[in-house]
Design a protein that fits this description.
about 120 residues; 8 strands; globular
Amino acid sequence: MPISKHDIYWEPKKSPYNFEKYDSRLESWMMEKLDDDPTVVKWMKRHGISIPWIDVQKHQRRYVPDFIVEYIDGNKSILEVKDPSRVDSDEVKRKRKAAEMWCKKRGMSYVVATVE
């Protein structure tokens, strides 16, 4: 599956917005999946979350996760979609660690989803 494809997802069922922009086919696929998931109450890509993390050169960077998702049981998650070939990269591992700590402080979970 080609990864990069920027476009607009019109009229999402469970986002508070009338459109959401996506940056990859994986994100587009996840938007459709979230809209069709009966356990999902609400999701959004335009959530305003920016998580600090430290790169391998010890520089502080900012990470904007793909989605925030709210479920019918009241739980919330940060959801990141990744190509399986990138999941184990150093950069992704560092971002994941920072996001997991950020979520834990807020009673949320962090999920990485892949598609093969």
